[in-house]
Amino acid sequence: MSELSFAELGLDPAVLEAVSAVGYETPSPIQAQTIPALLAGKHLLGVAQTGTGKTAAFALPLLSRIDASATEPQILVLAPTRELAIQVAEAFTTYASKFRNFHVLPIYGGQDFYPQIKGLRRGAQVIVGTPGRMLDHLRKGTLKLDSLKALVLDEADEMLRMGFIDDVEAILAKTPQNCQRALFSATMPPQIKKVAKTYLSDAVEVRIESETRTVERISQFVLPVYAERKLDALTRILEVEPFDAAIIFVRTKAETTLLAEKLSARGHAVAPLNGDLNQRQREQTVEDLKRGKKDIIVATDVAARGLDVPRITHVINYDVPYDTEAYIHRTGRTGRAGREGKAILLVTPRERSWLRTLERATNSPMQAYQLPSPVELKKMREQQFEAQLLGFSEDGKLAKAMALLDEIAERNDMDTAMVAGALACWLEAFQPGSLPLEQPEALPEISASAPPRRDRQGGRPGGKPGYKPGFKKGPKGRGGPGPKGKPPGKGGKPAGKRPLRQADAKR
Could you tell me if 295 and 211 are in contact, meaning their C-beta atoms sit under 8 angstroms apart? Predict the structure, then answer.
């Protein structure tokens, strides 16, 4: 079954076209087993860890069975957190990109009701959301399930742990009798088994054992950082890391261009790599990286699929991948041809719960990445500036330049050092940041072991209670001047008894 291609599974042509555009060719084990069962209209019970590709496993066949021309809700997906709901909604949007007038609507707590009601009135074929807010809309009558063809419970054990199980069962009770149902869970506690037995009669069961893989020759680091300071953190990483070439991964095509522009403005030889580039442009970008015309590529997962450039020493995950396969693929772009590689993950407080899954997938805990202090960074910049300056001490034009400065100093009764200082200020005026005059600002530190901040609007930080990511204290980022001739970068409660309406806080 694993040898099958997506084209052989019987998916709707429009869905298959979208899958092809994304760059997927071979289904993962859970996709190969799940897609035929859901295409046949059967109930399904899937036991699989996060990161096995299960979103596509249920999204692709369910999209293939709906009436894309009808605007009422036909697919309903329940997720335990707003983050997962958004992720699943984005995946559905991607896989339904070849449908016309197709809408996917995420519904979760912490948002005003009005935009959600407006979206429901406009019409959406797919609704993805958290149980609490979904139940609110059902009770208000703003969400109707009369035309519902399929319902998915994603990460059912997590919904149980969070106290959502009553809401889930209330929603299930309101679905049409002939509605197809799929339940996915990493574990099967008694209450989840009960739900499956009640609502998924004669279900096909798919079990996928979690695989662990070691990413060899690659040192893995994680840097917790607030979302609004990611660019600052990235520029400092590029400044202190002695990389030969680097690939930076982001989630969207638009972000590749935007980030590449920002890094280029900071003096880096960088280019975007995304699906909007034609084949010739992609090949040219990769060739520029191989030949040293570019040192940094900002890419999406799809665009970088199969990329093999031995001089890539660093992989930087600017955006956290929500798929372990994607993470393994990303990190595998370095450490090639027997060389050592380094992978650095930027993670926001709300994303740190995902680290455990990534560590299991790679069979390796991540080390805490430490940026140099402002004092250390200023000293480093001064040393780099000095090294660059002294590099011109044997320049053929040095004698003429010295004579010119001496003449200016003599005419104006100034010390030669003052003239040199004025020349440096002139350079700074034309090229801001060229002189290491000011101590850089300290980036806010986030404790590696502290739990993520709770969303003020009721969002769940995520992760199991008491979980601390497997950080090991690692070395500080070391650097010094980069390769010769390159300027430094600039810019720089268990479920069972229901907890106190925990679900209310998530709406």
Answer: no
